[in-house]
């Protein structure tokens, strides 16, 4: 297996893609010579480029949720030339297992998911009690059939920071590191039920700016409405970088931070994977399932009876799990100057 060629069908969310590195690291621990390619959405290329375990990224042409039987056949024909020995399918959907099946990969491994009998020939039964964390479930797929109980302690993701790229993006954005940096990540693509209120972020920004910190707001173009509102409410004390960086550049910028405060989002996992202190804000989601994987991370949550609900919108219409999470609780977790 040391010289095996492995195709990973990657997940579709930023945070899940980062947690999948635990699988790649486990595979490399067990088989140092293994070649790992990842079939994943094009946006993930920048993140995967910072994972030394990955040889190359194969950009998936399929939009999230799109079936495209013909397109999957065509992609599989191209992949046949790679002669993969093993495919590991991380999403649970039926369609995500089609390409390795069509490509004739000899061993096709994954959890049963959507009754994928035949599409997968190395089907694992998920024991949620033994592996409550998603990262454990990913890493367990590194084990060979019949290897016994899966190892549940997964190696943490660790993204590489590029010093030259960091210098370039700091210069391009005219950013200086003469004051400690607090990065705020107020977005959450999954939905508003995971977002700490804009007013709370603004209050936090004002408090830390008064202590001499500089405040950077990070996010995608979709987060611009939120970051602009936070900056406005804070009295424009923030530097709004939302939509001005690539995901790969975010990796380098995160490494500049003294601390990061983030909703449960992909950027939270980026911060944890570059080993900076992270305050992770949880409301509708569960830190027992997808926590920030770092010993420098702290969880801020209320743990209301209705939480976690895992809904995109609060089904009760109030979002008290985050609305009532006070700024003072977050401030106490931040490192002092």
TrEMBL record:
InterPro entries linked to this entry: Glyco_trans_9, LPS_LOS_Heptosyltrfase, RfaF
Keywords: Glycosyltransferase, Transferase
KW Electron transport (keyword) present: no
Catalytic activity: an L-alpha-D-Hep-(1->5)-[alpha-Kdo-(2->4)]-alpha-Kdo-(2->6)-lipid A + ADP-L-glycero-beta-D-manno-heptose = an L-alpha-D-Hep-(1->3)-L-alpha-D-Hep-(1->5)-[alpha-Kdo-(2->4)]-alpha-Kdo-(2->6)-lipid A + ADP + H(+)
A single GO cellular-component term on record: cytosol
Record GO biological process: lipopolysaccharide core region biosynthetic process
Residue stretches spanning the membrane: none
GO molecular function, one term: ADP-heptose-lipopolysaccharide heptosyltransferase activity
Keyword hit for Iron-sulfur: no
Gene3D superfamilies xref list: Glycogen Phosphorylase B (3.40.50.2000)
Family: Belongs to the glycosyltransferase 9 family.
Stated name of the protein: lipopolysaccharide heptosyltransferase II
Species: Candidatus Methylospira mobilis
Species classification: Bacteria, Pseudomonadati, Pseudomonadota, Gammaproteobacteria, Methylococcales
Gene that specifies this protein: waaF
